[in-house]
Amino acid sequence: MNSNEVRRQWAERTGAYSPEYYAYYGPDKRSEAVRSRLERFVDRDAAVLELGCSSGRHLAHLHDNGFENLHGIDVNDDAFDVMDETYPDLAADGTFYHDTIEAVVGDFEDGQFDVVYSVETLQHIHPDAEWVLEELTRITDDLLVTVENEGESGQSESAEPDVSYVNDDFPLYHRDWNRVFTELGLHEVDAESGKRDTVRAFRTSQE
Question: pLDDT tier at 172 (50, 70, 90 boundaries)?
Answer without folding.
Answer: confident
